[in-house]
């Protein structure tokens, strides 16, 4: 059995998809996401492509359907690109919006796509929104010990069985939602924030360099830090 593992931090820690990954691009993006909690839209936000499971049980399709019929304030939907025609009648279809719009909402959904992880967790934390993040039991990340469910974001079950209950609870308890969102933002800024694209924070680099497999690989290659 081939047990080789390449250890790298998730690329969404050091690049932001959907914007210009330059110092100027990041600076402008961050100016646009600096929206205080009281000025954010009191609604649930998700906008994305139909990616992942090709069935009516697709996480993004199901979540948008549930929110749309929940009675909760929302702006959710799927982009028409990549949406299979057989699912179009079941979907809430939206037009594209700039990435920074996500930070203008108090509540952000982070749902599985092509992989059992979604970078909306990172984007939501940096934007100081409360992120509802679909759990990834089959995948672990370097920052798992830094970013904690229940403390920095709200974790949803992989099958989204608790989706409506948890989203409804926090939308109706905004002071609790705000406390988690603000703690998540503070933790992101302390441990994950960098000013320049394609760089790691000291905290992430320390987690990376202390991985046992990385140490063994570095020693085998005679790499000196």
What does this structure look like?
With 225 residues, the protein is α/β, with parallel strands linked by helices. It has two domains: 19-193, Rossmann fold (3-Layer(aba) Sandwich), CATH 3.40.50; 200-225, no CATH class. The protein contains seven helices and five strands, in the order αβαββαββαααα. A five-stranded parallel beta sheet has the order 2-1-3-4-5, sandwiched between helices. β3 (105-110), α3 and β4 form a beta-alpha-beta unit. The longest helix is centred in the C-terminal third of the chain and has 18 residues, at 174-191. The chain is globular. The two termini are 31 Å apart. 29% of the residues are buried. Residues 1-7 have low confidence and may be disordered.
Secondary-structure topology with pairs:
Blueprint: H1 23-32, E1 41-48, H2 59-68, E2 74-78, E3 105-110, H3 120-126, E4 130-134, E5 154-156, H4 163-171, H5 174-191, H6 202-209, H7 212-220
Parallel strand pairs: 1-2, 1-3, 3-4, 4-5
Helix pairs in contact: 3-5
Task: Please give a handful of descriptors for the protein shown.
225 residues, 2 domains, five-stranded parallel β-sheet, 7 helices, 5 strands, 12% strand
Largest sheet: 5 strands, parallel
Name the CATH homologous superfamily of the largest domain: Glycogen Phosphorylase B
How would you state the average pLDDT, rounded? 89
Question: What's the β-strand tally?
Answer: 5
Arrangement of strands in the largest sheet: 2-1-3-4-5
CATH architecture of the largest domain: 3-Layer(aba) Sandwich
For the record, the CATH class of the largest domain is Alpha Beta
How many whole angstroms does the radius of gyration measure?
18 Å
Shape: globular
Under CATH, the topology of the largest domain can be stated as: Rossmann fold
Give the helix tally: 7
Tell me the fraction of residues in β-strands, as a range.
5-15%
Ranges where pLDDT stays below 50 over 5 or more residues in a row are 1-7
* Helicity level: 25-40%
H/E element string? HEHEEHEEHHHH
| Coarse structural class | alpha/beta
How far from one another are the termini? 31 Å
């Amino acid at each position: 059995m081939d047990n080789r593992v390449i250890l790298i931090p998730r690329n969404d820690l050091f690049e932001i998809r959907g914007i210009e990954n330059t110092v100027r691009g990041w600076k402008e993006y961050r100016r646009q996401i600096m929206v205080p909690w009281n000025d954010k839209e009191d609604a649930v936000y998700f906008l994305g492509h139909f990616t992942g499971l090709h069935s009516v049980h697709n996480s993004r399709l199901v979540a948008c359907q549930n929110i749309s019929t929940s009675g909760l304030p929302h702006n959710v939907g799927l982009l028409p690109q990549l949406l299979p025609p057989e699912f179009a009648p079941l979907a809430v279809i939206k037009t594209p919006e700039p990435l920074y719009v996500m930070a203008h909402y108090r509540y952000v959904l982070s749902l599985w796509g092509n992989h059992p992880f979604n970078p909306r967790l990172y984007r939501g934390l940096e934007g100081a929104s409360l992120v509802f993040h679909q759990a990834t039991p089959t995948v672990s990340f370097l920052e798992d010990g830094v970013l904690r469910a229940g403390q920095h974001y709200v974790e949803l079950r992989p099958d989204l069985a608790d989706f409506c209950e948890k989203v409804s609870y926090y939308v109706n308890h905004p002071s609790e939602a705000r406390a988690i969102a603000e703690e998540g933002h503070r933790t992101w800024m302390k441990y994950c924030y960098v000013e320049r694209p394609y760089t790691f924070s000291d905290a992430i680099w320390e987690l990376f360099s202390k991985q046992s497999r990385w140490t063994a690989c570095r020693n085998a290659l005679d790499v000196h830090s």
